[in-house]
């Protein structure tokens, strides 16, 4: 009641204005608190969204590194395979050349063997002839 006595000299309109100001201040304060809360929530969501984006960037970078490493390993393996294939090709060419030489030696040896067989047959014929002559005597 003592507060009301303070406002009596100014009239009821002034009291209504003060009450209206107090009500506006009260609701304004609640509005500002709610506004702050909403801003904090929005800020927290923005931070989480940014963290997710950073995580996605990190995961993408990790996948790119792993893919690069795998491609490097594949390239190295292909290089080794190509080297092995080249070595096998060289080896096969060497084997073919060696077989050609052996075949040539075999043909030459066969011809020499046939010539030697003819000579041995001729010698046997001569020895038989000489033996026959000696035994008939």
Write down the overall mean pLDDT.
Answer: 90
Order of helices and strands: HH
What Rg do the Cα atoms give? Answer: 57 Å
* Major sheet summary line: none
Distance between the termini: 181 Å
Tell the overall outline. rod-shaped
Strand tally: 0
- Which residues form runs of ≥5 with pLDDT under 50? none
What class do helices, strands and sheet pairing give?
Answer: mainly alpha
Binned, the helix content reads over 70%
Number of helices: 2
Strand content: under 5%
Secondary-structure blueprint of this entry?
Blueprint: H1 2-7, H2 12-136
Descriptive notes:
The protein has 137 residues and is an all-alpha fold. It has helices at 2-7, 12-136. The longest helix has 125 residues, at 12-136. The protein is rod-shaped and about 185 Å long.
Spell out the key features of this protein.
0% strand; mainly alpha; 2 helices
Nutshell version of this structure?
Helices cover 96% and strands 0% of the residues.
């Amino acid at each position: 009641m003592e507060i009301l006595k303070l406002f009596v000299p100014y009239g009821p309109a002034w009291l209504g204005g003060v009450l209206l100001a107090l009500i506006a201040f009260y609701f304004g304060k609640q509005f500002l608190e709610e506004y702050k809360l909403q801003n904090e929530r929005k800020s927290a969501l923005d931070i989480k969204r940014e963290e997710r984006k950073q995580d996605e960037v990190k995961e993408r970078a990790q996948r790119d590194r792993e893919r690069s490493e795998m491609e490097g390993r594949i390239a190295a393996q292909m290089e080794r395979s190509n080297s092995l294939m080249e070595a096998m090709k060289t080896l096969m060419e060497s084997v073919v050349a060696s077989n050609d030489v052996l075949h040539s030696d075999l043909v030459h040896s066969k011809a020499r063997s046939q010539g030697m067989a003819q000579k041995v047959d001729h010698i046997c014929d001569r020895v038989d002839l000489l033996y026959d002559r000696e035994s008939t005597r």
